[in-house]
Design a protein that fits this description.
hydrolase; about 110 residues; globular; DCTPP; about 70% helix
Length: about 110
């Protein structure tokens, strides 16, 4: 949780926590995900990895991915959720739900 604490400290030092209610942070997060999606919008799927593997496009992808992560951690702070701990538990549950031997190479269906 150290980086999540850094995000909390960054906002607190600037007296921004007053603006960091869950609704506002979700909207900011959606906006940043939109900016990330916009980078890939017209790039053919089979070219996306190569297109964003180096240079200025990689830098832009890094920036937008970072913005998404920072807002997600800020949302966790607002709701007093340790995001890394919650994600670790979620991944463990997914391992149980989708054992390798039953889903290897197969996209899982939605419930």
């Amino acid at each position: 949780m150290p980086f999540q604490q850094d995000v909390r400290g960054f906002a607190a030092e600037r007296d921004w926590t007053q603006f960091h209610d869950p609704k506002s942070l979700v909207l900011a997060l959606v906006g940043e995900v939109g900016e990330l999606a916009e980078l890939f919008q017209w790039v053919p799927a089979d070219e996306a990895r190569r297109t964003y593997s180096s240079g200025p496009r990689r830098q832009r992808a890094e920036e937008e991915i970072s913005d998404v992560l920072i807002y997600l951690l800020a949302l966790g702070n607002s709701l007093d959720i340790d995001v890394l701990d919650a994600a670790t538990r979620k991944l463990a549950a997914a391992r149980d739900r989708f054992p390798v031997e039953s889903v290897d190479g197969v996209a899982p269906e939605k419930d």
